[in-house]
Design brief:
204 residues, alpha+beta, five-stranded mixed sheet, transferase, GST_C, EC 2.5.1.18, Glutathione S-transferase
C-alpha cells in the first residue's frame, strides 16, 4: 500500500493506523499547494480531490477520506483491535466518534489554516474548536482512550488535531483529561515513529 501524505496534515492519522496495525506501506509525500508528488507528477491525476490522505491499494485502487481509510486499515489487522467488529454496538460508537471528529472538529480547524481569513474570523473558529474539545474532555472520565481502555483509529485522528492545536498555542490547562490523553497517545511507540518519519517537531 502507498500512503499519500503531507507532514503533519490529517494524513498523520492513517499513518499512525498503519504503524499500529503493523501493515507494510510506502510513504509518498505530496505538496498540497502545488498538487505535486516529490517526483514532480501531478497529484490531481491520481486523486482529483487534491487532498490528503489517499491510500493506494495493491490493486491500483485509490481510497480517500481519512475516516474511511483508517477503518479499512483496522479491518485488515483485526487482531490489533483498532476498530470493533462490524455490526457491533461498539463499531457504531466508533463511527459516531469518527463522524464527530471529521464534521465538527476537523472542519472547524480548516479555516484557521487559511491565510486569506482575518484574525476575527479565525478567532470564531478557534472558540468553536475549543467548545468541541471541552466536550471531548468531559468524555474522558475513567477512560484512557475515546473508546475506553483500547486505543482505536479514532484516537490517532483526535491526536492529529491536538497537534494542530498545540501549534496554534491552544490552552488546554482547563482540560486536564484531554491534556493527559494527548501525552498518553504521544508516548505510544508507533505514534512516535509516525512523527519521526514525517519530520515533525513533536517527535522526541
Amino acid at each position: 500500500m502507498k500512503l499519500y501524505y503531507s507532514p503533519g496534515a490529517c494524513s498523520l492519522s492513517p499513518h499512525i493506523a498503519l504503524l499500529e496495525a503493523g501493515l507494510p506501506y510506502e510513504l509518498v509525500k505530496v505538496d498540497i499547494r502545488a498538487k505535486k508528488l516529490e517526483n514532480g507528477e501531478d497529484y490531481l491525476k491520481l486523486n482529483p480531490k487534491g487532498q490528503v490522505p489517499a491510500l493506494g491499494l495493491d490493486s491500483g485502487e485509490i481510497v480517500t477520506e481519512g475516516p474511511v481509510i483508517v477503518q479499512m486499515i483496522a479491518d485488515q489487522a483485526s487482531s490489533k483491535a483498532l476498530a470493533p467488529a462490524h455490526g457491533s454496538s461498539e463499531r457504531y460508537k466508533l463511527l459516531e466518534w469518527l463522524n464527530f471528529l471529521t464534521s465538527e472538529v476537523h472542519k472547524s480547524f480548516g479555516p484557521m489554516f487559511a491565510p486569506a481569513l482575518n484574525d476575527e474570523a479565525k478567532a470564531f473558529f478557534r472558540d468553536r474548536v475549543m467548545g468541541k474539545l471541552k466536550y471531548i474532555d468531559s468524555q474522558f472520565a475513567g477512560r484512557d482512550y475515546l473508546m475506553g481502555k483500547q486505543f482505536t483509529v479514532a484516537d490517532g485522528y483526535l491526536f492529529t488535531m491536538l497537534t494542530w492545536g498545540e501549534r496554534m498555542k491552544f490552552d488546554l490547562s482547563a482540560m486536564p483529561n484531554l491534556a493527559a490523553y494527548k501525552a498518553r497517545v504521544e508516548a505510544r511507540p508507533q505514534v512516535q515513529e509516525a512523527l519521526k518519519k514525517e519530520g515533525l517537531a513533536q517527535a522526541k
